[in-house]
Amino acid sequence: MRHGDVDCAGCGQSWTSKPSKIYLLDFTLPDLPVIKLGFSSNPEVRMRQVQIAPETTKGSVLRSVALETGHRAICFEKALHSHIKAHRPI
Known about the structure:
Blueprint: E1 20-29, E2 32-40, H1 43-50, E3 59-67, H2 70-87
């Protein structure tokens, strides 16, 4: 709350009320291909955030789907992770 990360998705001004996207990232850690599912208002920035060393961990945004709010995006993300865990366990 101190940093303004919590508010009402209907009337607030933080990530919960702003438009967001569900994304699928594809990048390579040293000798390990990775696919990451998540949500962000800017998947391209998130791609740069998750790369350990951009010069060696080449990656791209495979797909992104726009949603009305960050609250809706996090709900979808959690549901997708639950679905994957239930239907594609490691």
